[in-house]
Amino acid sequence: MVARAAGPYLAALPHQPVRDRTHAHLLKELDGPLPEDGDGTMTAVSDLLRIGTRAATHSSGPRFFHFVVGGATPAAQAGDWVTSLLDQAAGLWLTSPLAAQAETTVLRWLKEMFGLPAGHGGVLTPSATFANLTGLACARHWWAGRHGVDVTADGLAGLPRMPVFSSGYVHASSRKALQLLGLGRDTVRTVTRDDAGRLDVAALDRLLADTGPAVLIANAGEVNAGDFDPVDEMADLARRHGAWLHVDGAFGLFAALSPHTAHLVRGIERADSLAADGHKWLNVPYESGFAFVREPSALGRAFGSWNAAYLPEPDDEFINYNNLGPESSRRARALPIWATLRAYGRSGHRAMVERHRDLAVRLGDAVRDSADLELLAPVNLFVVCFRYRPPGVPKADLDELNRRLGEELVADGRVYAGTTTYRGVVALRPAIVNWRTTADDIDLLVSVVREIGGRLVDRT
Ligand SMILES: *Cc1c(COP(=O)(O)O)cnc(C)c1O
């Protein structure tokens, strides 16, 4: 039944509004009392399909430009179905050698794709938030060790605050990871040189000279304009001052795939830990993330739960991945990654990265060519940061106009894009990360923004 429904659903995806609000009433049909006896499999699943295919946000379609939401390649989606079909307990080698081998293989493939050293340890996670948690947990273990404490066994009690530095680009998920690790969300000190939040390298250099062991978070891909911290220079600082360098490369790590963008991530191979997402620019279904660490045993030391004498090495044949990350029981999330990399290879994924960049450049050009649109940042990657700025509207009214434009875009539903605050002004920041997106979808985005914007101005 599900397989039969999939064809028509996927075929309609490119032509549907992102969300059809006329189906909102269906959400109520999900609700109701706990069934005593149940309706049976066929009724339940056909209801779920009927409600789901209509009421879902079609964010896996080509015109969802809000946040950074990847699609699912056909192979990745099919691989995800296989994951559910096989229902592996993927925490231990014993329970699923298949899942463990697939995880080892995809981690190796990903390292190779990103140009990371083959000796790095790694683990799949549900998301980049969990991958940041994983990398920063290793950083915390290292840092506490520098103070003579085994934080895995003894916790943080008695230790000073862990110094963490980053640029203004630091993502909320890194803060969340620090919060969960008991280090405090606000422990990050941002060292910036302008109102965009760019890193002041010289100031960081001076600060590190006065600080003991510290952790640096490099943001390889910032969400407002797709800018990058200078990872290579941060790696220099980390080496000079004996600091731990963590790279949040949730989507930006994939810049390494193309010679046009690889310069943005120069130096990632020198980081101590890295985090990234599969469900963004790899176009693997949610939930998919991964973490890498330079010193493979760091994962076991931070996460090995049972004081195990046995800490797996990366080339060990029988890896228990639940010793290497924050989860215990977990699904075989390597399978969709394996499927998409096997299906399209490095060159297929490079082509997707380059096509998204080309589409972003196209959007940037359209913005530059429109008298009522203003480009706010250079187009680096796949994010285009701009605002609606029609002649005759006072500068003081532009923030409110753009905020309303963002709300109306989502309410309209033909395209989804959201607003942010960039250098003190409200801006749209569509992100192009779906393999289905075409030039027509980009042109539609521009025309819908101008149409709705024009309507808002006429109304006032
Ligand atoms: C999306 C994102 C995250 C968090 O990833 P999740 O998969 O949502 O947990 C972290 N950092 C950056 C830069 C991101 O874009």
Question: Care to describe what's here?
Answer:
The protein folds into three domains: 2-64, no CATH class; 78-341, Aspartate Aminotransferase, domain 2 (3-Layer(aba) Sandwich); 345-459, Aspartate Aminotransferase, domain 1. It has 14 helices and eleven strands. The chain has helices at 2-12, 27-30, 41-55, 74-86, 97-114, 128-146, 151-154, 172-180, 201-209, 231-241, 297-303, 334-369, 398-412, 439-459; strands spanning 121-125, 164-166, 188-190, 215-219, 244-248, 273-277, 289-293, 373-375, 386-388, 419-422, 425-428. The longest helix has 36 residues, at 334-369. The chain is globular, with a radius of gyration of 23 Å. The structure holds pyridoxal-5'-phosphate. Pyridoxal-5'-phosphate binds next to helix 6.
